[in-house]
Amino acid sequence: MDTKREIAGGSGIGYAHVAAGRNNQDAFCWASDGDWLVAVVCDGCGSGPRSEVGAQIGSRLVVQAAGRWLRSGLDGSELLEQVRQDVLASLRLVARDMTIDQVSFSQTVADHFLFTVVGVVITAREATTFSLGDGLVVINGERSQLGPFPNNAPPYLGYALLPCAPARGMSEGLSFNVHRSMAASEVQSLVLATDGAVDLGALSQFWSDDRVFKNADMVRRRLAVLNRGPRRRSLSDDTTLVVVRRKAAER
What we know:
Helix content is 30%, strand content 28%. It is α+β, with helices and mostly antiparallel strands. The protein has one domain (5-246): Phosphatase 2c, domain 1. The strands form two sheets. It has a five-stranded antiparallel sheet, covered by helices on one side. It has a five-stranded antiparallel sheet with strand order 2-3-4-5-8, with helices on one face. Strand 4 and strand 5 form a beta hairpin. The two termini are 18 Å apart.
């Protein structure tokens, strides 16, 4: 358990998905152990009929792999590359086991395992945010939007499982991109979000209010209120946040 930081998260389904009768295709996960913390948000490909499966599984695989390599003493870009390889290996096995005679491996991946990743690794010394695909990162109130990508087609980690991935015309590779690295002591507040949060405006309410960190369901509740309050239909797309801040004694 991280003794220096508080963390909270939640997810809200977008009204476009509600209208279409679809599930929330976002996911989030985190883990901490002593002086390190890993957190991610994932957004399943909108055109995939079961993309929430990949987002849920992928978010956990990323966090689990990162924690395993952190315990072994690895960090930085080496850690992220090892995490990428581990997650792809696990997804490949699952996709193969799910593939039946009538459905090809590539179709199984396209239907279930295309998702974006926005994450952070915080150790005793350093905090590193990383991504593969679109989303939003806010560090100490400084907002950085990741994407959008041409034709609203972000790169997905799962493309690396497909032999035709290079033909998709992606402008980026399929490795995690480091967004920012800074001293861990400099991070007072941090928000990781899927791209649905881009239109929410100020997000300070999520890290400045103690209730967000005392009630495990508070982030989800606030996102739900945005969809039925005066600004009804604020969330056109599924929106997921993970919020981290230093504890009061540390601040």
